[in-house]
Amino acid sequence: LWRFGYSARLLKTNHFKTAASNTSFPAAWVLLAQYSGRIPGLFAVEKKPRFVTMPESMEDKAHLELYSPPPGVRGMTRLDREAFRRTVVVPVLKVKKETVNALLKSLKQSVLQRPGLKRVVEDPEDEDGRLVILDPHKIPEFSLGESEQEVLKQLDVHPEVSRYNLELTYENFKSEEILRAVLPEGQDVTSGFSRVGHIAHLNLRDHQLPYRHLIGQVIMDKNPGITCVVNKTNIIDSTYRNFQMEVLAGENNLVTKVKENNIVYELDFSKVYWNPRLSTEHGRIVELLKPGDVLFDVFAGIGPFAIPAAKKKCHVFANDLNPESYTWLLHNCKLNKVDTKIKAFNMDGRDFLLGPVREELSKELPLLKEEQKTSFHIVMNLPALAIEFLDVFRHLLVGEPCSTAALPTVHCYGFSKHEDPAKDIQERAEASLGTSLSGRCSTYLVRNVAPNKEMLCISFQIPADVLYKRPCP
Fold first, then answer.
1. What catalytic activity does the UniProt entry give for this protein (predicted)?
2. Fewer CB atoms < 10 Å away: N or C end of the chain?
3. pLDDT the model gives residue 63
4. How distant is the alpha carbon of residue 456 from its chain centre?
């Protein structure tokens, strides 16, 4: 590789880590295979002369400056928008204003496409003229290629490329570019967040905390509709599933409104649990239900499973231990006009299963006939603890088992850091139930929560020998 003047740059991706851990080939052979095109995606191979440093060209410098704030903002902790002002020299073409549209269409690959920047500005030397700004990265040495010159000739535009001082301000830079310029070099930049109505929710790392108020202000500036930015300050409370948070920027108003799967919810984000990343999973479970089915939602929160299920004309029993969640659940039931279709409870999950759930199943299951197609579903969405509640189903009912088709289906969520998370979740569920689920369950990967931490849902019908305690003869 060195003989041919090549160097390999490792791509730090999970895909590489997996591939690298499963191979016994020497690194040199992997590189050679990549160079020959046999192992795409593991490495990027770039050619460069040995022992030669190429000077940075004028257009590369202009392109770099076009996407980078001034270096003087490095280390800023209190946002000073004026400090982001800079002037960059860019190539322009002088044209008559009546020719502008035709030129933009013909040279669209060469014209500046930077969002937020005008591509056409007035010519200070010609009242009837305009300056069309070109992308400095695509116009080497401020001169046009033959194909571009031919286009200009057809449009009767002079092919000379001029230099123009383009002023950039804070408004012209993206949030990622601003934060990358401010935070110390080499450190992670946080520009992603969860949006909950008008609230942006961040999970900042320790090294980002000195810049937290600046980060919050930038996020609010660059995302219309965001009027409050918060940062989680500790882990989720496993009892009530809420967490302490600090308002970084904007108004201190954490009561908000969200819309998920065409249903509106209102909540106090500081007191109840809400995760916008679970909307697909809420929809997936509700899609399994049919009108007339019965849903027991053990850890219901503010109702993202319960309310759409009631909208689907299912019979719903919804429970949550958190008094605030219970209050907002009742509020959202009324808001969505399903308050008469949902029976709400404010109980511990175990007590809910041993009380209302057992009572309803004891009453309804013996009445089911073979031809009836009512299904019973039990949702247990408390990933940190739900699997530990499965032992409640051991001999929950007394009597002769109902038909196999009528046995309740459980959808239980859990976290796993195991190398085989599906196997891990199944084994833990089997330990709680005291029986094997082999061939009788399915696992679904909900989302990646953190590096090497997955959230999964295991679904199964409760085996009859687990659910029923038969009376002694």
1. guanosine(37) in tRNA + S-adenosyl-L-methionine = N(1)-methylguanosine(37) in tRNA + S-adenosyl-L-homocysteine + H(+)
2. C
3. 54
4. 16
